[in-house]
Amino acid sequence: MTCTKVQEQLWELAIEDFDSLEPHLGQCRECAALAAAIREEQQSVEAGLAEFASAVPLREALVRARELKQPASSPAPARWKMLDSGLHWVAIAAAAAAALSVGLYTTVPGNPAAMVPQMPVEVPITVTSACVDLRKLEPGAIAGTLSEEAVECLVLRADDPDDPDLVKAVRLLTVNAFAMGDDEQWERFSTHLAAIEPEDASVAFKLAIHYSRNPGPDGQLNAHLSAERALKVAGVWSGETYVKRAGILHRLNVKATRSIWEERPREAREMARKAALDWLEFSVSESLPLEAPEAACLAVTGDPRCEE
Predict the structure, then answer these.
(1) Per-residue pLDDT tens digits for 244-274
(2) CA–CA distance, 45 with 52 (Å, rounded to integer)
(3) C-alpha span between 173 and 190 (Å, rounded)
């Protein structure tokens, strides 16, 4: 099996299924390093989620719910009013567009429709000079060693919506940034990839995990948006992979919306209630333990079934 195929499998498979790739991982240092990084990232998030799920006893949750139901004293920003007035999906679309516009691209003055890469290019780089053959760049991307010239060339390809290999080019940028440990670039390219490949549940899944590590309101809002996006297309997974990943996404979503709700109790309460209810319904449908989702419901509504 080639490194390219193994790398694709590492991004798609559940961690417990990595054993099937051991014959290759035992011989390839780069692929083994990628597998170890993915394991460490997901295990760290799962540990944090487990701590979150067990940190709110039912009695404390009810007390906290009563406290958070008090009206907010400060005026709400427009984005929270949008959420409260039912324009939830408008807010999601706007946030996704904003994330893309400030990430990989910037607009040309006087021509908002034109997009150019943020990366400065002192010497003109052509596609044919550095990245015409994407397969030759795969080993370097997996190892995180793509040259500056190759990255600039790939960014040019990422800027061309008519490029037949647009998705492959952005994936190479994403993998290279991940292997380098460059969180900022990984976030930019992953956000771009999620925009051009909205059906890619794995990208949205990893973005939700990434944003959940940011304790600030913007990070938690992005975690919520990414989790919702991934849950919409979670049907691409099946069996235990679906149950495990969808469960992680629901817990991430509840954690994120609860954080937002604590920041804006009045405006974001319905968002937090819906996330808790979705987690409860998922747990019921998959015959999973109900204590944690019921506690989440209780914290928002005062009722373990999220009933008003």
Answers:
(1) 999 999 999 999 999 999 888 888 899 999 9
(2) 10
(3) 9
- Find where tokens 């005026």 sit: 75
SS3 13: coil
Q: What is the pLDDT of residues 208-257, one digit of tens each?
A: 998 888 878 788 999 999 999 999 999 999 999 999 999 999 999 999 99
Instruction: Give the integer Cα–Cα distance in Å for 203 and 303.
Output: 34
**Strand ranges, E, within 18-173:** 105-108, 111-117
Tokens (6 digits) for 37: 């990084």
Phi, psi torsion values for 74, nearest 5 degrees: -100, 150
Per DSSP bridges, beta strands 111-117 and 105-108 are antiparallel
Give the integer Cα–Cα distance in Å for 220 and 241: 24
Short-list 198, 196, 201, CA closest to 168: 196
Rounded CA-CA distance 125/114 in Å is: 19
Nearest alpha-carbon partner for 261 in 251, 250, 270: 270
Tell me which residue of 8, 4, 35 sits closest to 22, measured CA to CA.
35
Query: What's the distance, CA 5 to chain centroid?
Result: 23
* Rounded CA separation 260/247 (Å): 20
Q: Which of 153, 148, 156 is nearest to 180 (CA)?
A: 148
Tell me if the pTM is above 0.85.
no
